Amino acid sequence: RETEEKYVFETEVSKIMKIIINSLYKNRDIFLRELISNASDALDKIRFMSLTDSASMSTNSNLNISITADPVARTLTITDSGVGMTRQQLKDNLGTIAKSGTSEFLSKMEESKKDDVSLIGQFGVGFYSVFLVADRVTVASKSNDDPAQHVWVSDAVNDFTIAEDPRGNTLGRGSQITLHLKEDAVEFLEPSNVESLISKYSEFINFPIFLWKGHNETIISEKSETLESNDDVEEEEIDSEKTEPEELTEEVWEWSQINTQKPIWTRSPKDITEEEYVEFYKTFTKSNDGDPIAWSHFKGEGDVDFRSIMYIPPRPDANFYQSLASATNNVKLFIKRVFITDDVAGDFFPRWLSFLKAIVDAEDLPLNVSRETLQQHKTLKMISKRLVKKALDMFAQLAKNDEKKYSEFISHYGVALKYGAIESQSHRKKVASLLRFRSSQNAQDAVVGLDHYIERMKPDQKHIFYASGMTIEEIEQSPFLERLVADGYEVLYFVDPIDEMLMQNMPGYDGKSFSNIAKGDIKIGDDSDEAKAEHKELEETFKPLQNWLKSTLSEYIDKVTISKRLATSPMAIVTPEFGLTGHMEKLLAAQGM
Ligand code: ADP
Ligand code: MG
């Protein structure tokens, strides 16, 4: 029998432990996520091994995780039937840090001084987080590669010991982590607390998680049961004369599986009902503000392996249009069914799409990848590209299949799409096709898409006409509109402040350029020779008036021309083609520019 040996923690481990204990006490319940995640990894490993070596499973064939608390000993124990650790592995894995990005993380933490919970939370603190809640931890572990079961023990002060387990091989295979809880961490002895943590962090773990817990059961005393089950009439009469059957409640303790549902995104979309999608939306967003407008459930395959469900929420978050930063908590990232973080929205969606809520479950990312390396991970970039494309597909589908829902979508997110058309070079055409505007044909609702508009263009029409204003009324009173509308041309109504910006960034669509009817001399189409001659005549006739106006108003105007665009108004003041429109001037003035 080998003797117990004492080892000193690697300096980096000691540093990490100090940081964890000092800065994460408010989020200390993450220890359970870390332990379950490690157990799940260990189970993944043995399951993988058994693919090529079926005998490896025989040492313990039930793949699961079980959790139990002992209030008398004040311990919480997490047991898994995973791959386990040899003596050497216990020493290496739980005494050193092999994790990439650790030193980077350490120097950042030392710099920041503050309790930078977000930093450490993203980093994935791993096993050492047990010392948030425990002052003494024992890890018993049995690997197929070691004839003996060993126990690792530490009280987080500089060193740990490893010895052969005096109880012998109790595990068959796997690991058992026992936390001797700190006095102020006794809440984790309460099964209902542990259960809600499991639900929070690990509902979607691939292996069953069992919790030892009690529940009240109503027991009807044996006597009355016999009487009730007896058909004999006489006996029943006797029964009715007796007192009521005795009801007792008894606390029954048993293993109960906490994570019962297979993660919804791993299931086939055709087996999932609308209600299930809606319920899942509400659960994972913890929201109660109605049903999502639409969703898309898909699988990325080939160069990047992941699954995702993304939702269009019933309405944008209150500060979506105010804040310039990408929304947070909108995307939940899982790696191989293990919840990693929900602070990655900006990594997956450009700002203008960050109103979407999504879960992403990636196969090709390492668990506990640090925040810094996560952002640089090329897998993440590839996933992001797919998500954006899928989001645009989802919008296009909705536009095609459900007019009512699409107009609801546009009413909430139309402005976000316009931002998209401005910001995204690569998706501008697609995003532009999704935009909807009011127009001289439907001033009430934003339903006119650029494709519809172009389909309806008159044969001689070269440009997409638009008019800007603060309100529909203002636009409709504009003298510039009359002639075009009278001649049967459609004019888009731009009433969103962002529309002018959109025009500056989107010179055309599908080969047609936009033409602001309030600017310069708009060209409707090619003039016939006859029209040209007529115009020439008019110019001759009004030359004297033109000259008089020009000299009288020289302080205020650039030039006076004979216009083709007015129908009933005698005269209009316009801005030059390359100048600011009146509307834009108002906008800039409002912003103090
Ligand atoms: P990470 O999980 O990122 O590797 P941890 O600090 O959580 O970092 O765990 C360190 C290592 O300890 C793991 O990589 C694994 O090799 C080992 N380990 C931890 N828990 C278990 C377990 N339950 N079964 C087997 N090995 C484990
Ligand atoms: Mg881990």
UniProtKB/TrEMBL annotation:
Residue ranges with Acidic residues bias: 228-239
Keyword check for Nucleus: no
Gene Ontology MF terms: ATP binding; ATP hydrolysis activity; ATP-dependent protein folding chaperone; unfolded protein binding
Keywords of this entry: ATP-binding, Chaperone, Nucleotide-binding, Signal
Binding positions for ATP per the UniProt entry: 34, 38, 80, 85, 93, 99-101, 122-127, 371
UniProt-annotated stretches for the region Disordered: 223-247
Domain of life according to the entry: Eukaryota
Family: Belongs to the heat shock protein 90 family.
Protein known as: Heat shock protein 90
Native source organism of the sequence: Mortierella isabellina
Residues of the full protein shown: 60 to 652 of 770
